Amino acid sequence: MDVSGTLARFVVESRWEDVPPAIRREARRGILNAAGCILAGRREPELARLAKVFPGERALLDAAAATALDYDDTHLRTVIHATPPIAGVLFALSESNATPGADFLHAWIVGLETTCRLGNAVTPGHYERGWHITSTCGVFGAAAAASRLLKLNSSQARNAFGHAATQASGLVEVLGAQSRVLNAGFAARNGLASARLAAAGLEGPAKPLDGRRGFFNVFGGAQDFAQITDGLGTRWEMTNVVYKPYPCGVVLHALIDLCLEAREKLRGAEKLQVSLHPLAIERTDRPEPRNAIEARLSAQHAVAAALLTGKAGAAEFGDAAANDPAIRAFRGRVSIVRDESLDKMAAIVSDGSTTLRADAPRPMDDARLEAKFRGQAGRDAEKWLRFVDSLEPARKVELP
Fold first, then answer.
1. What gap in Å lies between CA 397 and CA 34, rounded to an integer?
2. pTM (2 decimals)?
3. Would you give the distance in Å from CA 320 to the centre of its chain?
4. Measured between alpha carbons, how far is 13 from 11 in angstroms, rounded to an integer?
């Protein structure tokens, strides 16, 4: 099976008329969500530092901004944040290319399919080894989106995957540090560079994904090639990408839902026991977060902030909230226990007399997504909403 070639052909030969209306609609929702995350993330101090080192590199900066507040998206099976690298690439390319709106949307879709299907193929095992799957798989999605928009042929797209494979990187160890934004930023920059190198005629290996020393064998994890090829172009993996209502790790979202819905029952409890999947505990067992970055990956903080304030927005996961005396005291009431029977997105909360369970976060409907976007975009919200609504028939993409 020529996995690399099959995926490359899909990227460049997929036909817009074969993309169902529901998938086109989901692409517009994803673009709106990514735009809001970028607009809000640009205000974070990490982005000012990156801009000094990488001036003018819009793909890198926008992808990094999209992840800066942990407010972006998640592919449920793999926990990939799939849209930031793709958004970084497409927003950057739209500045210099006369791109029709349908082409922009199509590139978004093939990029997401590439990222998520690769993630499925290496799950489990890849993330658990310490590779940050958002970056290692995201670079291929970014390369795919750029290859589509730059109108590469299938041979060139395969070369782009080869260039992406040798630039794939990103460690889970950086999560919880300011440098975490580099993972999505570098995936966007390297994916875009990979497609441009292929367009310039630079050849890559014949089997960048499935070769003896290709991505699958070197980076570890499962090697389920069928996850890439089966139903390609008819079964849309991007439908399993969800958007975050809360600016924190997605494995905390069902827990926050529980706390907000049962706030009156739980906030007076002297002790609360929270049961989580081992992966969720590994990522979020932080009883004393020191700042916003750590608070966004703290189950104890999520419980305390939601129960004390009745909210779970950007302010509740900011530096001030992380050091608020009342929230700090409440975090001490929360204990975390391991439950391997739970899904990594699920949570159980007990105060000793009442036990509540959520198996998955509540999805974001259009109204919640628009409300989130308006809060992020501020005075720019209306023009972005108009842009997304009119994107498909647009003769040329012009970002607000």
1. 16
2. 0.94
3. 26
4. 6
Is the same domain home to 271 and 129? no
Integer CA distances (angstroms), 46 to 58, 81, 178, 182, in order: 15, 18, 6, 10
Q: pLDDT 10s per residue in the chain (400 long)? A: 799 999 999 999 999 999 999 999 999 999 999 999 999 999 999 999 999 999 999 999 999 999 999 999 999 999 999 999 999 999 999 988 889 999 999 999 999 999 999 999 999 999 989 999 999 999 999 999 999 999 999 999 999 999 999 999 999 999 989 999 999 999 999 999 999 999 999 999 999 999 999 999 999 999 999 999 999 999 999 999 999 999 999 999 999 999 999 999 999 999 999 999 999 999 899 999 999 999 999 999 999 999 999 999 999 999 999 999 999 999 999 999 999 999 999 999 999 999 999 999 988 999 999 999 999 999 999 999 999 999 999 999 999 9
* Separation CA 232–CA 278 (nearest Å): 32
3 state SS of 116:
helix
Tell me, what CATH number does 147's domain have?
1.10.4100.10
Please return the burial class of 280, using the count of CB atoms within 10 Å of its CB with bins 0-12, 13-18 and 19+: buried
**Do the beta carbons of residue 106 and residue 16 sit within 8 Å?**
yes
Chain centre to alpha carbon of residue 82: 4
Radius of gyration of the chain (CA): 21
- Residues 128, 259, single domain; the answer is no
Coarse DSSP helix, strand, coil percentages of the chain, rounded to the nearest 5 percent: 60, 5, 35
Which residues form the domain of 331?
Answer: 250-358
Q: Do 278 and 211 sit in the same domain of this protein?
A: no
